[in-house]
Amino acid sequence: MPARPLVLVVSPGDEADRGYCLEQVAAAYDVVLLTGAEPSWEKPYILDHAVVDLTDAAALVAAGRALAERHDFAGVVTWDEWQLVPTARLARALGLSSPSVEVMRGCRNKATARTLFARHGVPSPASMKARTLLEAGQATRALGYPAVIKPAAAAGSIGVIRVDRPEELSGAFAFASAGASRSREDTGVLVEEYLDGPEVSVECVTYHGQTTAVAVTRKHLGPAPYFDETGHTVDAADPLLAQVAPAAAGAVKALGITDGVQHVEMRLVDGRPRLIEVNARIGGDMIGHLVRLATGIDLARAAADTACGRAPDLTPTRDQAAAIRIIYPAYSGTLTDCRVTAPAPGVERVRFQRHSGDQVVLPQDGGDLYTARIGFLITTGPSATVAEARAQEAYRHLNIRVSPVAKTTPATGERGA
């Protein structure tokens, strides 16, 4: 039996929301990991590994080179947003095919992306960089209210906040700056035009410069002024896909991406797509799994295929819908109970990522998606309407209890009275 191709995976992520990626890649490839912690759940899917400080670029390249002395890699891939640039740098060092470091930097930096979108005629919001609160004020006067303030190079809606009035600007700028300070690439802040319309993402695969939009994800957001995603729905028969696919492909091309999987976020303003950003990896929140449940298309396998110079199989084999509902607390505090009280139809899985005794902190209290989320549930159905109704029903069968913590001072970024 011929040996399977060998792929190097950088930063496999958490089992709860990224375990499916490693499992699906391992079904077709032998896998070697570069990871920040000794493997546990990953062990059944890997051939070898090295533990390295993932924040140390030089150490990452050195560890990759050491593994390459033992293995003949066909490609290297990551689905970790924070590792896109380091993985491109590692691929260059190992002589493996990959989008360039410069292209990945453009994807990571929203200011750079806005410039490239404008140059290539891709519609996106007006944007201005603000280094100080004074510059943020000048930007909002130029762009008008409402406006969006966000880190230039973060992830997961961390530090992203809407501003409706001038008196909210100081707290919002502090909130965005705190999120930006977590970036290792650019700690700057952007002020952008607010796009008023439903938000979607387009899940794309690019191979040798040709981009295929395989699914559209309808997003559900929490209350303003934050942009936390509370759920997503993928329907194989969604007619919106044909409408938004050209804009998504244009954005991918504008950034110079020639291979890989992309999660392209946009809003529909008066029914027309306006680009928010291109994430050059599989979407989070189990979106790749939703796509597979709904269409049969395997985005994790496609990511490995394109990284190894192989044409991905993007043939749909299912005609279903799938929905995910993120489990949030009603308020910040100590989680005292989280469990399913009764079965519900169409539930594919329920995962709790927090446990009794854990602190859960919402954005308005200084938290983010990592501190606020308790878990998620996924449902399927013959249509989006059915899948979403099943998700709502399943949510009612959860018992979530939180002991609130009294606030003594206003949280950074909290809106004024």
Architecture overview:
It is a single chain. The protein has 417 residues and is of the alpha+beta class. It folds into four domains: 6-98, Rossmann fold (3-Layer(aba) Sandwich), CATH 3.40.50; 126-193, ATP-grasp fold, A domain (Dna Ligase, domain 1, 2-Layer Sandwich), CATH 3.30.1490; 195-319, D-amino Acid Aminotransferase, Chain A, domain 1; 322-407, D-amino Acid Aminotransferase, Chain A, domain 1 (2-Layer Sandwich), CATH 3.30.470. It has twelve helices and 19 strands. It has helices at 15-26, 57-70, 84-94, 101-108, 110-119, 133-143, 169-180, 240-254, 287-295, 299-307, 369-372, 384-396; strands at 6-10, 30-35, 48-51, 75-77, 127-130, 147-151, 161-163, 189-193, 199-207, 210-221, 229-235, 260-269, 272-279, 321-327, 333-340, 347-352, 359-360, 375-381, 398-404. The strands form four sheets. It has an eight-stranded antiparallel beta sheet with strand order 13-12-9-10-11-14-18-16. A four-stranded parallel beta sheet has the order 3-2-1-4, with helices on both faces. Strands 5-8-6-7 form a four-stranded antiparallel beta sheet, sandwiched between helices. β10 and β11 form a beta hairpin. α1 (15-26) packs across α10 (299-307) and α2 (57-70) crosses α3. The protein is globular. The termini are far apart.
